[in-house]
Amino acid sequence: MSFNKLIKKYKKKKIKIGIVGIGYVGLKLLLQFAKNKVQVLGFDNNLEKLNMLNKKISPISYIKNSEIKKTNNYSSYNADYSKLKECDAIILCLPTPLKNQKPDLSHIINTLKKIKKYFKKNQLLVLESTTYPGTTEEKIKPFLDKKFLIGKNFFLGYSPERENPGDNSYAFKNIPKICSGYSTKCTKLCLILYQMIVDKTVAAKNIKEAEFSKLIENIYRSVNISMVNEMKMISHKLNIDINNVLNLANTKPFGFAKFEPGPGIGGHCIPIDPYYLYWKAKQVNIDAKFIKLAGQTNEDTTNWVIKNFFKILTKEKKIAKKTKLLILGLAYKKNIEDTRESASKKIITNLHGKLKKIDVSEPYIKTQNSVVSENSIFLNKYKINNISITKNIIQKYDVVMILSDHDCFDYNLIKKESKILIDTRNRIERKNRFYKL
User: Fold this and answer.
1) CA 10 distance to own-chain centroid
2) What is the tens place of the pLDDT at every residue in 176-223?
3) Are residues 62 and 201 in the same domain?
């Protein structure tokens, strides 16, 4: 098939797309293509998740079951990777964690080993995973070189994901999509692919710049979150409410972007992604000091919360070994079930064995079957109950601590019934026996 015919095929949406990895990023992407009447196949190793999706049940709290049902005619979910042979475009949405503070690309590499036999001429392969500059060309391209002429009879691209779990402020189609390719033709095909689902696509000059851009986005957040968390610790010492200070600063119409302090950082992006560039910088003998300092400061923030928790117990004349603590929220941020790298987990791990009892109230992990097992292992390990809050329940605990400020919590009830309340998310006005950290 000539490239011009391939372009026409894409523009007419007469293609089939395979998305490998249907987690927070992959499922949202799949639904966008299906909504725009493009045939899309989702592939994953998690059989429980696949079973839910095939029953039209969403495994993610902020994606409604109705969204799965509406796109049923254009979507399917399976673990049979041989069906990738049917696909014109393949998008990889796979985890890129850290291992010993170094990039761990095993999910990508192992998947490529499994699916490379299903690659065919005129396919487009796009990586969406966050990674260090050079990954696509150094790690993915070698899987293609022996069989194809990249840019002529096979096309390779990179388009960084911009998913913000649980945030409904921006519709998917309104968020510009950066696209890049190994060659001009690769980039063009990548652009046409994503123009099916977003209003604006932006072409990067090359793949490495696109890969770098995603890291800069997350490093920007990491550095600014660490800065505001450090300001919180300083203001606390000075007996100044950092939240009021930030509101004042935010009245400036230029040169300031407001970031919210909290009990530390969590999720897959901010605690992990910056270290991909830190590692890459080390390879060229550069010590990325801001990245390292920001990461350490955000870790220090969680330790600072723990330290001040014990100071509050002392002030309130409470003995730690006799204290029952209720933690509100296990997720790393509000209104989602994602507990990866959450401050709540880190705090529970630290406090385990030092208090009489620790329980949590995390409504989002109760009904989401695909994440129940992972979190159940954590809760069982530390003998923690996940409970729904009521007047009688709250009154059983000496201290209540807000770590994830889900909107579904009844904050009036929490304020009224808590004996000692510690708020790390600025949801409660400070008063006697109410503390902000």
Assistant:
1) 30
2) 999 999 999 999 999 999 999 999 999 999 999 999 999 999 999 999
3) yes
Residue 73 lies in a domain: yes
Please list, residue by residue across 344-356, b when 16 or more beta carbons sit within 10 angstroms of its beta carbon and e when fewer do: bbbbbeebeeebe
Of residues 324, 329, 334, the one with CA closest to residue 357: 324
- Rounded Cα distance between 185 and 130, Å, is 23
Residue 277 one-letter amino acid? L
Q: What is the CATH number of the domain that holds 267?
A: 3.40.50.720
CB atoms within 10 A of CB 211: 27
| Stated length of the chain | 437
- The answer to whether 288 and 278 are in contact (CB under 8 A) is yes
What Rg value do the Cα atoms of the chain yield, rounded? 24
Query: Is 269 designated active site?
Result: yes
**Is 313 strand, coil or helix?**
helix
pLDDT tens digit string along 259-283?
Answer: 999 999 998 899 999 999 999 999 9
Question: How much is the pTM?
Answer: 0.93
Domain span including residue 7: 3-205
State whether residue 64 is helix, strand or coil: coil
Q: Which of 87, 93, 269, 408 is catalytic?
A: 269
- Burial class from Cβ neighbours inside 10 Å (0-12, 13-18, 19+) for residue 239 reads exposed
String of DSSP letters for 92-107: E-----EETTEE--HH
Angle between helices 47-54 and 369-381 (to 10 degrees): 140
The alpha-helical segments, DSSP class H, found in 116-181 are 135, 142-145
